[in-house]
Structures are given as structure tokens and as C-alpha cells.
Amino acid sequence: MKTVQVMLPVLIMIVMGAIFHKTEFISEKGMDDIKKYITKIALPVTIFHAMAIATMNRDTAMIILVMFLMLSIAMVIGFLLRPFMKEPYKNYLPFMITVFEGGMFSYPLYQNLCGDTYFVNIVIVDIAGCIFGFGIFYGILAMVDQKLKFSVKTMAKTAFTSPTFLAVVFGLFMNLTGLMKILLNSPVGNLYLPVKEIITAPLTAMILLVVGYSIKLDKSLFVVCIKTVVMRCIVMAVLGFAAIMVLKNSIQDIYMLTAFLIMFITTPTFSAPGFVKNKDAASYFAMTTSIYVFVTIIGYAVISMVLFS
Fold first, then answer.
1. Taking the CA of residue 144 as centre, how many other CA atoms within 13 Å lie in the half-sphere pointing to its CB?
2. What are the CA-CA distances from residue 63 to residues 34, 66, 123, 232, 244 (Å)?
3. What are phi and psi of 28, to 5 degrees?
4. Regarding the domain delimited by 2-204+224-304, which CATH topology (the fold level of the hierarchy) does it fall under?
5. CB-based contact 173:148 (threshold 8 Å)
6. The dihedral of CA 260, 264, 270, 276: what is its sign?
7. Which range, 81-85, 269-273, 280-284, is most confident?
8. Euclidean distance between CA atoms 77 and 71, whole angstroms
9. What's the average model confidence in pLDDT over 44-56?
């Protein structure tokens, strides 16, 4: 019954999103505006707050370091696997093998299963993903897509124009300097918290609606995308197991373990199509992530059944 209670809201919102797309109950423009609110306001506020109040210690540092290393290894493996993929998709394969769709998928899934109390766990697991994604991933993707030479400037510009990346940076700053504690203990804190709550309250439902709306299936890309999904599943299974083994002393409870498990079953980033000009690449990214949504949902059901029944 617990698994049904956890899965039903997720499935309903995803199915509603798909129906809204099919029936045009919400237009593409309307959904783009919802995504803009999520990615530029609600999600950065959520991440900032979680980072600002998180307990920063040796375990946190180890998690960030190991996750960053795993993401780097995944990208290298992606480049090594290119000979198994045909043109033009082989050039884009590495970007479907690494990084996770944290804020737009794993966060609401985790929050739905573990609640607000432990939400900071999934954010800590994803810190490396934010740094790697906006500091390295998107910069390299833009250079591959536009056939540019390696440029630190391009990568830095990508990072510091991302609200999500800036939310991580400022959240860490407020945490490490102790300013967040001062803020929360001041009269201003009594105003900050209810404002934060009203901004982020609909986040989980809106994100899952967007996920369902964004599912796109193209028969012509089915074989190449399934091959990519299988490759990613194998890579993430191996790296996820390795990360949990290395960090076993830092994973103190079932809630932190769940954060790792959900992250490693989560889809590649939904944002990749927006960072490429090549239409074949954009279609490949969209189709692969759409198929992987179903993989994530199945994995999520298993996690819920095994750990929380």
C-alpha cells in the first residue's frame, strides 16, 4: 500500500502532463512559461535554502568529491563508447551517459517519498551534478555541437548564467559564513520562511506535469535511443554501486541511501536539447530522456517497495 501511495501521485501528474500535451489543454508556450518559473525561480530558491541550511562536514565533502569523480568517469566512458553508435549521434552519446536530471525529476521523486525533512539529502548528492553540469557538461556540449575549440570562457559563461548554479554557490556561501543562521534567527527570518514556502509549494506537482508534457517518442530514433538507454543503465549501475561502496561510512541512514539510489536511476538532463543547434541531436536527446523516464519510474517503484514497504 505504501508503494501505491507513493507512486500514484507521481503517475497521475505525469499522465496529466501527457494528456495536456495531446489535447493542447496547455499550449507549448504555456508549458514553457511554467518551466521558466520552475527553473529560474522556484527551483533555485529551493536549492538555495537547502544548501544554506545543510550540515557541511567531512561526509558532505566526500560525497561531493566522489559524485564529481563518478560523473567525470561517466563522461569519459561515454566518449569511449562512441564507436558503438552511428553518425551523427555518436558525437552526442557522452552527454546522455553522464549527469542526472536532478532538480526537474529526482528532487520531486525524493520529496514525494521521503518528505521535506530529509530533502536536503538529495540536494547534497546533487551538488557535484550542479557543479559538473553547469561548469563542464554544458560547456563541452556547446563546443562539440558548434565544433569549437576548448574554451574555459565558454564553460564559465555557461555556469555563471545558470540560476541553479548560482543558487548552489550563494547557498554554500550563506552556510559556510554562518549568515543563514543569523538570518533565520532574526526578525527577517520570520518573513523569509513563509515567502520561501509559497514560492516553492507547487514545485513537485509542476515538475511532474512538465515531465509528462515533455515525453516525446519518435519511431525512427527508437533503436539508437534504446541502445543509449541500455548503455547508460549499465554505466550507472556500476558507478552507482561503486559510489555507495566508497561512501558507505558517509551514508548514515536509509534516507541518504535513497537519495543516492534515486539519483543514479534518474534520467539524463532534460535541458540538453536547448543547448544544441543540431536538430538531429535535439531529437535524439529528447527521445532518449523520454524513454528513460519509464526506466526511472520502474526503478523508483522498486526503491519504494524494497526500502519503504
1. 19
2. 32, 5, 11, 21, 10
3. -55, -40
4. Na+/H+ antiporter like fold (1.20.1530)
5. no
6. positive
7. 81-85
8. 10
9. 88
If you write DSSP's letter for every residue of the chain in order, what string do you get? Answer: -HHHHHHHHHHHHHHHHHHHHHHTSS-HHHHHHHHHHIIIIIHHHHHHHHHHHS--SHHHHHHHHHHHHHHHHHHHHHHHTGGGS-TTGGGTTHHHHS---IIIIIHHHHHHHH-STTHHHHHHHHHHHHHHIIIIIHHHHHHHHTTPPP-HHHHHHHHHT-HHHHHHHHHHHHHHTSHHHHHHTSHHHHHHHHHHHHHHTTHHHHHHHHHHHH----GGGHHHHHHHHHHHHHHHHHHHHHHHHHTTTT--SHHHHHHHHHHHHSPSPTTGGGG---HHHHHHHHHHHHHHHHHHHHHHHHHHHHHH-
Residue with the bigger pLDDT between 154 and 181: it is 181
Residue appearing with cell numbers 552527454: 95
Confidence of residue 99 (pLDDT cuts 50, 70, 90): very high
Interatomic CA distance for residues 181 and 179, integer angstroms: 5
Cα angle 37, 39, 43 (rounded to 5 degrees) comes to 95
Distance CA 200, CA 116 (A): 12
Q: Look up residue 11 and give its amino acid.
A: L
**What is the model's pLDDT at position 2?**
62
The number of beta carbons lying within 10 Å of the beta carbon of residue 86 is 11
Better pLDDT: 235 or 271: 235
**Cα–Cα distance, 125 to 265 (Å, whole number):** 13
> How many Cβ atoms are within 10 Å of 299's Cβ, its own excluded?
18
Task: Provide mean pLDDT across the span 238-258.
Answer: 95
Rounded distance between C-alpha atoms, residue 262 and residue 102, angstroms: 9
Q: How confident is the model at residue 1 (pLDDT cuts 50, 70, 90)?
A: low
For the record, the C-alpha cell of 154 comes out as 565558454
What is the Cα–Cα distance from 58 to 40, expressed in whole angstroms?
Answer: 31
Contact 262, 124 (CB under 8 A): no
